[in-house]
Amino acid sequence: MDKNIKDKKSENASDVICGRNPVIEALKSGTALDIIYMDGNGGSLSVIRRLAKEKGIPVKDVRSEKLSKLSGGASHQGVAAAGACGEYVSIEDILEVSEKKGTKPFIIICDEIEDPHNLGAIIRTAETSGADGVIIPKRRSAGLNATVFKTSAGAASYVPVARVSNLAAAIDKLKEKGVWIYGTDAAGSNYCETDLTGSCGLVIGSEGFGISRIIREKCDFMIRLPMMGKINSLNASVAAGIFMYEILRQRRKEN
To answer: What is the pLDDT of residues 12-22, one digit of tens each?
Structure first.
């Protein structure tokens, strides 16, 4: 992630990262850490100790009970880092990512994804599929807390996330920059038959209600996944992953 993005001030989010891989990725990416709490040695914990020493970050040995308290009961795997979660960026920062890469914008827009596990999984897939960033609303949405960071398997250290007060206004700003907005809904066109090679903002709706009416009206296109079984919907992060990889597939085919 760019230094100017990493230097953004955190906003209203947990400041604890839990789990071995998320802490390792935070260390590797240069995310600012105040202190690392650990219980144990060996394996990847030794890697964390080495990286922390190289970067001059203090390590404090504590009991597992202390780590459980710090993590809020989440699985900590013997390590927790304080002072790093919750770095948000602006929409301009996200648009700058594609500009520097020389590619068309590829942005994920989460419309009230409240489950932190879903948001973390979406961020993880956004990183692996080459998305430039993720936009979330301030209200009725999970933020960059410890659960999101852990579920993302460290991807939250690399994917810029913008947290906006008005998601509809944020979409208008993307449109002004030439980004087409694709909503996801069962009434849309088949995703495989839709051209997704242009500048793309992909909207993922909430777990229970899908895309809100106001955001739906902002979408230029609606796309859907075919449903062949008795269940007519997928988990939000699973559906998001399928759509993201279709965008990647079409872009790679075009090149």
So the answer is: 335 788 999 99
